[in-house]
Amino acid sequence: MVASISPIARPRGRRTACAPRPARALRRMRGGHALAAAGLALLPWMALLALRTPSTAHVTNWSAAWIGLDALLAAGLIGTGLLAARRDPRLSLPAAATAALLFMDAWFDVLTSAPGADRAFALVLAAGMELPLAAVCAVLAVRAFPKPAA
Question: How big is the CA angle at 100 (ends 96 and 102), to the nearest 5 degrees?
Answer without folding.
Answer: 115
